[in-house]
Amino acid sequence: MQYPSVYIAATNLITAIGDSSRMNYFSFKAGICAYAESEFSNSQGEPAKLALVPSQLFEQIQIEIDEGLYFSAQYERIIKLAVYNLQLLAAEPVIAHIKTPIPLLLAMPELNENNPPIPNRMLTQHILQYSSIPIEQSKIHNFPSGRAGAIEAIAKAFEYLAQPENAFVLVGGCDSYADTGLLVELDEQGRLLAMNAADGFAPGEGSSFLLLTNRAEYAMQQDDAIIQLSPPGIGHEPGHWHNDAPYRGEGLDQAFKALLKDYSEVKIERIFSSLNGEHFWAKELGVAQLRNRRYLHDELVVEHPADCYGDLGAATGAALITLSAMSLILPLSASRAPTKGELSVGSQPLEQSCTPQIQPVANLPPIKPDSENVHLIYASADGPKRAAILVRRVSASQQIAELSNHQQGQR
Questions:
Q1: Which of 280, 330, 268, 253 is nearest to 25 (CA)?
Q2: Which of 29, 78, 219, 404 has a CA between 20 and 30 Å from the CA of residue 359?
Q3: 34 near 310, Cβ under 8 Å?
Q4: Is pLDDT of 1 > 90?
């Protein structure tokens, strides 16, 4: 299939360090960390470190939730994160160009028999009920691949945007680890970060949505810069968390190779990764870097934003793409990072006492604008799925001119 050029028209990201893409980006660049000791204690009696969205955000979202038979507080948090995020995204001017209902491609938490994730229908019914962005119900697709889900979903978005009747596709993911049963399971697996458990991760929560388009004139723009996405590369790891097969890091290498097979541009200088602090994930990245080193710069920088906002589960893929896009398109003078104790909900800052967990990371180098034009993004699920994608900064005027010339050549 001949795929079109695909651009980011709008994005919004909610995590423990911000409720907008811009705030998350500047908080991440400043090294602000939202880890905090929680009320949940691990098997050693030590409080686990979590990175949760401030409670005030949930309190201000007034929606009627159909609790159904299998409702939980975790499900409520996920639903509210999704609805609030889409309300913010709906305020973007580009939404006015959406004339007919559009496809929705949702990354979902991975299946878990012991602690069932939020049912697909429960989340999508509330999105349909409260979203002012028109969504075509028959074109809602779910991708239960956790961290890798959103990048996997973008492969489907390319298929939709290759059809002339589609100018926009909405891709996103929402997730939360704020569930006692899930935390107990992670503790039993030795995966929770705590004072006496260094090889673990900080469970977080978040919501991230990307509005994608095949029209360069609809892409979000800074000066002449817009963000273009590549078709993703997908891989499968036999030796994943839930399998006894040997873990050799093959899956991420497969994803990199599928992504880069036709790549001939400058060497990639920056990777945005789903690394969450667990030692387990280092092996596959090392394998993928070694086997694909001809595409990678000698001074490659690997970003792992989970150090700031925790593990976002199914919101990870879209969040990483958002942060990459912000770093490629935003001048650092456009805003500033929040200081300690400052985190906004909508346009209103939270009181300092509400966010004691916000702590700057010490000894950071000075913030400098990213000079490169292409980033590699990847996300790895606990299960077998591995997904990678390229995020590029391109010229809006050049993209529009090339499309115009192509159309004229076809006449």
A1: 330
A2: 78
A3: yes
A4: no
Nearest to 318 by CA among 85, 107, 150: 150
Q: Which residue has the tokens 């990307």?
A: 210
Say which amino acid occupies 105: L
CA–CA distance, 150 with 78 (Å, rounded to integer): 16
- What is 395-406 written as a DSSP string? EHHHHHHHHHHH
- Model confidence pLDDT, tens digit, residues 3-32: 889 999 999 999 999 999 999 999 999 999
Distance CA 35, CA 42 (A): 16
Length of the chain (residues): 411
pLDDT in tens, 381-394: 999 999 999 999 99
Which DSSP string corresponds to 224-264?
A: TEEEEEPPPEEEE-TT-TT--S---SHHHHHHHHHHHTT--
Nearest to 28 by CA among 354, 395, 355, 335: 335
Q: Are 409 and 398 in contact (CB under 8 A)?
A: no
Mean pLDDT estimate for the chain: 88
Q: What is the dihedral of CA 270, 273, 275, 276, to 10 degrees?
A: 110
Taking only the tens place, the pLDDT of each residue in 146-169 is 999 999 999 999 999 999 999 999
- Specify the higher pLDDT residue, 406 or 335: 406
CA 138, CA 399: separation in Å to the nearest integer?
32
CA dihedral 390, 395, 397, 403 (to 10 degrees): -30
Interacting residues of 87 by C-beta distance below 8 A, sequence separation 6+: 130, 131, 132
Stretch 176-195: mean pLDDT: 95
- Structure confidence at residue 330 (pLDDT): 86
Identity (one letter) of the amino acid at 111? L
**3-state SS class at 88:** helix
SS (H, E, C) 148-164: HHHHHHHHHHHHHHCCC
- Alpha carbons 363 and 118: distance in angstroms, whole number: 40
Distance separating alpha carbons of residues 38 and 295, to the nearest angstrom: 42
Kindly state the tokens that stand for 206: 């978040």
Q: Give yes or no for a contact between 145 and 153, defined as CB atoms under 8 angstroms apart.
A: no
Q: How far apart are CA 395 and CA 266, in angstroms?
A: 17
DSSP string covering 290-337: HHTGGGEEEEEEEE-THHHH-B-GGGHHHHHHHHHHHHHH--GGG---
Per-residue confidence (pLDDT) for residue 220, from 0 to 100: 96
Label residue 242 by pLDDT band (50, 70, 90): confident
- State the maximum Cα–Cα separation within the chain, in Å, rounded to a whole number: 72
